[in-house]
Amino acid sequence: MKIINRISVLVLILNIQFVFAQEKLTLEDAIGIALKNNHQINIARNNAEIDNNNVNIGNTNLLPRIDASTSANYQDSSTPSGSEMTSAASTLNTAQLQVSYTLFDGFNNILQFNRLKISGKIGDLEARNAIEKTLFQVSNGYYNSALAWENLTIAKELLTISKERVERAKKRSTYGQANTIEVLSAQVDLNSDSVVVVNAKLFWQQSRRDLILLLNIEQNREFEVDTEVTFTNNMKLSELNNFALKNNASYLSAINRYKQSKIDLKIARASYSPQLSVQTSYGYSQSNPDFDLNLNDPTKTFRAGATLSLNLFNGFKNNIQRQNAQIGVNSQKLASEEARLELVNIVTNSYEAYQNSLIVLKLEQKNLEVAELNFKRTQELFNLGQVTTTQFREAQLNLIRAKNSISTAKFEAKLYEIDLLRLSGRLVKESE
What we know:
17% strand
C-alpha cells in the first residue's frame, strides 16, 4: 500500500524536518511530528492496512481448498443367535487428504476479488482523507498558537507603553506639570493592560497545550511558534476545481463506491449461473476388531469427482438480491454526483473566502500603517502636553486593535489556503 508507510506533503507548506531541540517550532516541524505521533493518523494507517490485507485471492474461491482429516469410530453391536445374544465390537480408522476447487460459479470468485481491490483503494483514500483532516487540525492548532503568541507579544507592548506613561505622569506630577487625575488615569490603564497580558498568557498556554495534544509530545515541552506567513499567489479557481475532481480523497471514495456497487450487481446476477466444482481425495481406512486405533494394514482409497449444480428455486432470494443491488447502483450513482456538486461548491466558497481574506489583510495592513503613524504623532504631542490622556489612550488602543486585526487576518487567510490544498487533494500525496 502506498499511503501507509511513506507520506510526502507538498513543499509549499511542508518540508519536513524534526528539530526537537530548537526553541522555535515551525509549521513544518509540527506537521512532521504529527505524521509520526498523532493517534488519529496512526489509526487511519492501521485501518488502511487492514483493508489492504483483505485484498487477497485467499478471501475468494480462486484458490483450491485442502483438508486433512482422520477419524476413529468404535462400534459394539449385539445380534440374537438362538436364545443367546452375540456381541461384536470393531473400530473403523480412517485418514484422508481432500482437495476441492470451484471451476466455475458465474465468475463470482473473480468479481469478489475485484470488489476486494476496490475496497483496498477506498481504504487508502479514507486513510488519506483522515490524515488530511488531521493535518488541517494541526495547522489550525498551530496558527491558533501563533495568534495567541502574537496577541501576547502585542499585549506586552501595550503594557510597556502604559508603564512608560505612568512613569512619565509621576515625573510630571513631581514637577507640578500633571495633576493627580492624570496619574490615576495612567495607573488605571496600566492595570487594565496588565489584565490583558494575564489573559493573553492564559490563551497562549491553552492553545499551546491543544497543539501539544495534537502532536502527542511531552506536556512540559517549551517552545515558541513562527508567526511569519507566506502565501501562494498562483491559485486559480478553475485549476483548484480540476485538481479537486481528480485528487480529492472523499470524492474519489464516492466514485469507487459507485464502481463497487456495479460489481455487487454483477455478483448478484452470478447467482443465477450453474456452479461446477471438482473434488479429489486420497486416504487410508482399516477396520480392526475390538477397540484398536492402528493403521498398520490399511486399505488405500483414491476418489475423484465433479459436481454441477444449478439453483432452481430458493424463495426468490436471488431475485431480491439482484433488485437490491440495482437499487444500490442507482443510490451510489446519485451519491457520487452529489459528492461532485458538493465538492465544487465547497472549493468555490473556500476560494472566494480565501480571496476575500487576502483583500481584508491588505486593508488591515494599510490601516496599521495609519494607526502607527497616528500613534507616533499623538505620542509626540502627548509628550509635549498638547493632547489629552484620553486622546493618547485612544491612539494607543487603535494601534493595538490594528495589530491584532493583522494577526487574525493573516492566519485566517493562511488556513483558507491550506484548506484549499486539502480540498484539491494536494496537501498529502501518495508516494510511488
